[in-house]
Amino acid sequence: MRHRKAGRKLNRTTSHRLMMLRNMVTSLLEHEQIETTEVKAKEVRSLAERLITLGKRGDLHARRQALSIINSKKVAHKLFDELAPRFAGRNGGYTHIFKTRNRPGDGAALAIIELIPPEVQEAKEKAGKKPAKKKTAQKKS
Question: Rounded distance, CA 127 to CA 114, Å?
């Protein structure tokens, strides 16, 4: 029984799975969009969102934690200098997963995982802000 066992094994050894996820999240942060299987995209999402949260924190310990996962210093700089300020006003939900098609060779469900573009983020922030209601003074009789 797999009670309380978080994460998917993806039919790989532990070292292969961890390195594959590290490579995928590095590519996602570098290119801001990758196509992979739906199950792998769901696994990468949690790792990517954790890294963006580290980027928002921005201190030295967060940089070292991020570099222990990210394979490229260039991508780590991009995370802390470009991506983290872009998501500063957002509390989670930095990625979208779009289901696309089935792969011809084995029929696996493919999906595109991408970081939320700045235009979508700005539109949601504008829609979320409602005008303040004016409070009317109640008369006491």
Answer: 22
pLDDT by residue (tens digit) across 92-104? 999 999 999 999 9
Domain tally for the chain?
A: 1
Whether residue 10 contacts residue 47, with contact meaning beta carbons closer than 8 Å, is answered with: no
Name the phi and psi angles at 6, rounded to 5: -80, 150
* Residue 109, token pair as written in the block: 């469900």
Do the domain assignments include residue 30?
Answer: yes
Give the separation between CA 79 and CA 77, rounded to whole angstroms.
Answer: 5
Domain span including residue 46: 14-128
Range of weakest confidence among 65-74, 121-130, 132-141: 132-141
* CA 51 to chain centroid: 8
> What integer pLDDT is reported at residue 13 of this predicted model?
97
Which CATH number does the domain housing residue 25 bear? 3.90.1030.10
Give the separation between CA 55 and CA 81, rounded to whole angstroms: 8
